[in-house]
Design a protein that fits this description.
Blueprint lengths: L1 E7 L3 E8 L4 E5 L5 H10 L2 E6 L5 H4 L2 H7 L4 E5 L11 E3 L4 E4 L2 E7 L8 E5 L9 E5 L2 E2 L2 E2 L7 H12 L6 E4 L4 H11 L4 H15 L7 E2 H7 L8 H7 L4 H13 L2
Parallel strand pairs: 3-4, 4-5, 5-6, 10-13
Antiparallel strand pairs: 1-2, 2-3, 7-8, 8-9, 9-10, 11-12, 13-14
Helix pairs in contact: 5-6
Length: 257
């Protein structure tokens, strides 16, 4: 399975999963249709699936046009997003599995950003290979999504599920927010040497207009404050040792950053 990362809108990423042997493709969170259609044309491949993580327009905006071009493509989304994702035919729940290119993805129910958000996780094909996590707006490189429809407790539980995956899992998040996320992280975890090294690297990458996605879970666990709610430095920064309160206060501070 090859992964093609397509930049869209102002700061969105859409991901085209491609099987070069059968020349079929699936797309994750198509914000727009045309870049996907152009990529499919270059690959001379057919779209067979649309994998949506949640209903926001910048994740489903391309669904209708893609279905016009590929009417047999199957649209997947969370069970609780019924009626909110254009063309949705399959309603996924925690623990469900879907298949693409002879690989199976496990579904995680990860509410918080929205009440129906899901993530798609493809485990490693070999012990040396990375897993692939398509997490929409739940986990970002250096951050996490705003709580539009969920609670801090829900988001904490969702992030804990993702944090439990192997360190070499690649994190394919849907926005180029990394630099600003890390700038905030420094305000609450400024003694974190790994974080300081990471932001230097990201600043150089962004100065060259390079994508900072994908990240890896190992990097996120060391530098992302929203996966470090149980670390003393973060608890001290928000004056709480309670996990949910620590997370909620961090999220509130980031909202005002």
């Amino acid at each position: 399975m090859h992964i093609h990362q397509l930049a869209m809108l102002q700061d969105n990423y859409t991901f085209l999963l491609h099987d070069p042997n059968s020349r079929i493709a699936a797309v994750v969170d198509p914000a727009e249709a045309q870049p996907v259609l152009d990529c499919l044309n270059n690959l001379k491949s057919e779209l067979v699936a649309i994998l949506n993580t949640h209903h926001h327009k910048d994740h489903v905006g391309g669904n209708v046009q893609l279905l016009n071009q590929f009417p047999d493509a199957v649209v997947y989304g969370g069970a609780h997003d019924r009626g909110r994702i254009p063309g949705q035919q399959v309603f996924l729940q925690e623990g469900d599995r879907i298949s693409f290119a002879e690989q199976q993805a496990e579904i995680f129910f990860v509410p918080g950003h929205t009440r129906a958000h899901i993530a798609y996780y493809f485990p490693p094909e070999t012990p040396e290979a990375p897993g692939e996590l398509f997490c929409g707006d739940t986990l970002f490189a250096g951050g996490c999504g705003r709580l539009f429809e969920g609670t801090p407790s829900q988001m904490l539980n969702s992030l804990e599920k993702l944090r439990s995956l192997p360190d070499n899992t690649r994190v394919w998040c849907a926005h180029e927010y990394t630099l600003k996320n890390l700038q905030f992280a420094l305000t609450v975890d400024g003694q974190n040497l790994g974080l300081r090294q990471r932001i230097e690297q990201v600043e150089k990458m962004r100065s060259r207009s390079e994508a900072t996605v994908p990240s890896t879970l190992g990097v996120e666990k060391l530098t992302n404050p929203f996966l470090r709610w149980d670390q003393p430095a973060l608890q001290s920064a928000v004056k709480s040792q309670d996990a949910v309160k620590t997370f909620a206060r961090l999220r509130g501070m980031k909202d005002q950053f």
